[in-house]
Amino acid sequence: MKKKYTLLVFSVFLLVAASLAAQTWRKWEFINPADVQITIVPEKLEITAGAIATFTISIRNRTDKTVQIHYPTGQQWDLAAYHDGTQIYRWSQGLVWAESPHTVPIKAGESRSEKLAWETVDRLGLPLPHGVYRIHGMVMTVPRYLVSNNCSIRLLPDDVKKEEEIKVRLNQLFDVELPRYSGNRELEWKINYKYNDNRIAVNRIAKKGDKLCVTFHPKRVGHVMFDLYAYHDTQDESKSLERRSFRVEVE
């Protein structure tokens, strides 16, 4: 019995020693993700497709002690952009950094940040399809990098019209007139509600000469915000030619 008790005590001692050793190792080499906050903020939420999008990535010490940030190379930051769940851009792709391990201390409550830019073009230099893109930033620590929150930006066509405001009464039909053609080609229009909550609905669409008349039915009191995108009938809305924005007040 005494022998079994001695073995048990020895086993517990080994477990505690291993645990302490691991904690010491992690304290020296690893960062507890709970100790820092990684964020990314876009400079603009909407830009013209093909333009340069700028983002600020920050790391903030959330503790009351200095946190040591370890980097294995000269690279400290990175950024990735996604469209429909697929990564289509990585800021660091094609770049090379020297192997220069170094440590940057961040005092309690302090932050460090960096601005990274993304030119929104494809590999041929053409503007990317219009729509919403998801982006996250990275702090390239060891043994694994830390990832920020996700943010989104929208890529727009070259022609963005000034927002129009419309006031209507409940159940009073109202029309929005749009150009029917671009040159000799007929246009298709796609509606994108930013905020509706079933307050208005399309009643009918009519072609009148060189105009397209969209009639809406206001069904509930409140405000509505929507965009209308124009594109050629042989292309989808990701290659839209223009955007027209509307704010409707239903009284």
CATH class of the largest domain: Mainly Beta
CATH superfamily of the largest domain: Intracellular proteinase inhibitor BsuPI
Q: How big is the Rg?
A: 28 Å
N- to C-terminal distance: 87 Å
Strand segment tally: 19
Going by CATH, the architecture of the largest domain would be Sandwich
List low-confidence stretches.
Answer: 2-10, 12-26
The global form is: elongated
Structural class of the helix and strand makeup? mainly beta
CATH topology of the largest domain: the name is Immunoglobulin-like
How many domains, as an integer?
2
Note the beta-strand portion. over 45%
Report the helical percentage: 10-25%
The description of the largest β-sheet is:
6 strands, mixed
Number of helices: 1
- Average pLDDT confidence is 88
Write the H/E string, N to C.
Answer: HEEEEEEEEEEEEEEEEEEE
Report on the architecture of this protein.
With 251 residues, this protein is mainly beta. Helices cover 11% and strands 53% of the residues.
What labels would you give this structure?
single chain; 251 residues; mainly beta; Immunoglobulin-like; 6-stranded mixed sheet; 5-stranded mixed sheet; 1 helix; 11% helix; 53% strand
